[in-house]
Structure formats: C-alpha cells, structure tokens
Specification:
about 250 residues, alpha+beta, 8-stranded antiparallel β-sheet, 3 helices, about 30% strand, disordered N terminus
C-alpha cells in the first residue's frame, strides 16, 4: 500500500508556499506519456517552481469589502466526516458517504508523526475525474480527525492522464473560488517546488483547503515553463499552523 501521511509542510504552503515532503502524498516518479499541458499563466515568463511567493502576491478572488465572519465559507471537514470526530464516527461517516465494501477501508500509521489514518479508494469522487484515494488522518494527542486528503494520480487510477489531472484541478479551483473563503487567505496559480498551488483558502477559524497540482516543469520557447502533471492533491486541514503531530520536546537532544 502506498503511504499517505499527514504533512507538516502544509504550514509552509499556507504562509510562504514553500513545498517540501508533500510529494509523499502522491505517486512519485510517474510521468504521463500524454503531451505536456501548458501551466497556468502565473507560472509563465520565467517563474521558478522553487520560488517562495508570499500569500499577498497571489491573485485573490475577493471584493474590496471583506465579508463578515458569518458569511465566510466554513471548512468543517469533508462531506459527512467532520474535524474532531473519533475514528469510529469517521468510519461511520465514510460508510454513509461512500457505502464501501467491508474490507475497502484500510488503516495506516505514520511512525514519525505518530498519527493514524484510514484510507479509501473512491471512483469518480469528482464526476468523470477518475479514481482518487481518500485519507482521513487522526491526531497524535487528540486521536480525532485533523485532516482529510484526496489524491488523483497514476497510482490511484492507471487510466489517469495529464489532461485529466489539469481538468480536475481547474474544476476544483473554479468551485473553491466561488465558495466565499476569507478574502485575504485566497491564492491561486502559485508555483512551488514540483508543482503549482492551484488554490489555497481559509475560513474565519483558519481551517484551510489546499489544492496542489504536482508534476515536472520544462522550459519551452519564449521562456515559457510548462508543467506535466503527475498528481493532484486536495487537503482539508483543521490546523495547518500547529498540526497535532508528534514533535520532540525542546532540550531532549
């Protein structure tokens, strides 16, 4: 089974867009044979995929007047699974949402973060989007649901193509831009190491959604950087700034 872990590097994506071990969330080393699709415009004209861009530099889909907190989109989980649920309740929510076979939900532990996850393959999680793998992550101390992730890649669906990954990413980005997240948290089309943050947004409680298209960049004519995507990652995160994962106490080493 491929390993899908909670990733503390999400903290960087929320602040400086510095990408790191996020690659562990998707199928690595897979290059689609289809023709490379052009990256969004924000990646063109010499933009470096490794550049760390401040959130304020990102195009924001927001009006000049910020909405009141009660008008901002609330991110409380994914479908019936809500942040703070214990594993039994989360499994019940998964069953309600997807009605999987008894042996379809798998378990996995993260030996470094000391978190626990349950995994599920989900065909057509996005209509006509191919099969994704869902991960529900439970915190080190709380043992409650702290993150839900979805991955689309060749590893989750052998029929996945670069064009399909771009299509999925564009559909989801357009959806999230219409959802009403906190205006100053919204960013789109930002290059990071090995891919593009297609969307990032938070709610009034700083719970976040991150959509990351991973792949490889090539330099084309007119200094155009072209991304061949290999995976699409979607995260719903309860607290990306202080995730409930194991950390060594200060002074022990």
């Amino acid at each position: 089974m491929r390993k899908i872990y909670f990733v503390p590097a999400l903290v960087g994506l929320l602040t400086t867009f510095a990408a790191g071990p996020l690659a562990a969330q998707g199928a690595q080393g897979v290059t689609p044979k289809q023709k490379a699709a052009a990256a969004p415009k924000a990646v063109a004209a010499g933009a470096s995929p490794a550049a760390a861009a401040p959130a304020g530099a990102a195009p924001a889909a927001a009006s000049e007047t910020a909405p009141a907190d009660d008008k901002i989109k609330a991110i409380d989980g994914f479908r019936s699974a809500k942040f703070g649920m214990n594993e039994a309740d989360a499994r019940a929510a998964i069953t309600k949402d997807f009605n999987p076979k008894a042996d379809a939900i798998k378990s996995q532990d993260n030996p470094s973060e000391l978190t626990h996850s349950v995994l599920l393959s989900a065909p057509d999680l996005l209509p006509n989007g191919g099969t994704a793998e869902l991960s529900y992550v439970f915190g080190y101390k709380s043992k409650s649901l702290i993150q839900i992730g979805a991955v689309w890649s060749k590893g989750t669906d052998a029929a996945m193509t670069a064009e399909k990954l771009f299509s999925n990413a564009n559909i989801l980005r357009a959806h999230f831009l219409s959802e009403g997240f906190k205006p100053d948290s919204i960013a789109v089309n930002m290059p990071v190491n090995g891919g593009i943050v297609m969307f990032r947004g938070s709610d009034a409680k700083d719970r976040s959604v991150i959509l990351l298209l991973q792949g490889t960049f090539e330099n084309k004519e007119n200094n155009q950087r072209v991304l061949t995507p290999t995976s699409l990652l979607l995260f719903y995160v309860a607290d990306a700034k202080s995730p409930d994962v194991f950390k060594l106490p200060p002074g022990q080493f």
